[in-house]
Amino acid sequence: ARREGERLTAHNLTKRFQGVTAVDGVTLAVPPGRITALTGPNGAGKSTLFDCLSGAQRADSGQVLLGGKDLTRLPEHARARLGLARTFQQIAVFPGLTVADNLRVGAEQSAGRTARESAADADRLLDLLGLSDLRDQAAAELPTGTLRLVELGRALAAQPAVLLLDEPGAGLDRRETALLVELLRSLADGGLALLLVEHDRELVDELASGVHVMRTGRTEFHARLEHRGGAGHQGGHPDGAGHPG
Ligand code: ADP
Ligand code: MG
Hints:
The chain is an alpha/beta fold. 31% of the residues lie in helices and 24% in strands.
């Protein structure tokens, strides 16, 4: 079953590289049923923050929580099993595998499902993403926009509670962008918690109920008061605590 309805939170996360504090005491919440955006210039620390949330990198200090569970010390695959999925700025798919097999690999990251269930889920997702006709194509043969959708499908196949997307709109054509917008909306409506790194201002305005603007490692939160998702009741507090999604 889907593990929806859980909030991902970061408390005072810090990550330093030699001489650079890439993430500098970030506190934020990614509530279920909403799309939260993360914007900011190149080098602001967005991808590093994603890495610290997903477990691709270990933060130097601070905490990452999913619901009440402390993920801070867990490796990436363990966080994935608990319901955290992500995509990458540099698209990460298995180039030698077909589109369908890429999704099946993603489905295997979800605990407690049979091969048959995983295959059925992969079929449903292929349909949702408009990829059914490409199911037997090797990923290596596909253009960037299509690969982004394959990567998104791989992440969704794991049935996450929280989905972190690093520039999902990059390289998509108009038709693919429209499909992405509809899909992300319906995922949020279904209870998924989404965090989106995105530079496309229109996409952010259209989708996000709140925006974290990141600059040299620090974030500032802007609630979007008029948003349909009910963000109007969200105060300016950076972690949005006490506001159920
Ligand atoms: P963004 O995704 O917002 O463009 P990044 O998270 O990629 O920003 O980078 C934030 C800062 O951390 C930059 O100054 C970048 O040069 C530095 N940085 C990122 N990854 C590493 C790394 N592996 N080693 C050293 N410095 C890094
Ligand atoms: Mg980046």
